[in-house]
Amino acid sequence: MPDPSLMLRTSVGVRELKASASEIIRNVRDQRARYVITYRGRPVGLLMPLDETHPVLPLSARQPEASAWETLTRLGEEIGRGWRSSLTSTELLSQMRR
Questions:
Q1: Kindly report the CA angle at 20 between 18 and 26, in degrees rounded to 5?
Q2: Confidence at residue 87, expressed as pLDDT on a 0 to 100 scale
Q3: CA separation for the pair 13, 35 (Å, rounded)
Q4: pLDDT of the chain along its 98 residues, tens only?
Q5: Which residue of 41, 64, 86, 87 pairs with 91 in a disulfide if CB–CB is 3.0 to 4.6 A?
Q6: 37/77 Cα distance (integer angstroms)
Q7: Taking a C-beta distance cutoff of 8 angstroms, is the pair 34, 61 a contact?
Q8: Which residues pair with 62 in a beta bridge?
């Protein structure tokens, strides 16, 4: 039976991720859950479902002629379309640093 506390939380420590990896991945897959992975209380990564219509390509498969700036601009636009927080990214970063 899934641990309800994992589905309600938005962050998970690396130790808990290791101990509950299968259940956390299942939540991401089935519930479209997102988790901020923390190490010693500090965010270090994001675990979230991939969008089937825009899969992430390995670096070797990406177009080499695209500049880094063009890539960052495109990624920023993609993130903006899926932004679900009432806070801006600057406000979120400010809160995380406190």
A1: 120
A2: 81
A3: 10
A4: 555 555 556 889 999 999 999 999 999 999 988 999 999 999 999 998 887 656 666 655 555 556 778 888 888 888 878 777 788 777 878 888 77
A5: 87
A6: 23
A7: no
A8: none
User: Residue 35: CB partners within 8 Å, gap ≥ 6?
Assistant: 9, 10, 11, 12, 17, 24, 28, 46, 47, 48
Which single residue is written with the structure tokens 């899934």? 2
Neighbours of 33 (CB within 10 A): 20
Report which residue type is found at 83. W
By the 10 Å C-beta count (0-12 exposed, 13-18 middle, 19+ buried), 17 is classed as middle
CATH of domain 1-49: 3.40.1620
* Domain ranges (residues) in the chain: 1-49, 67-98
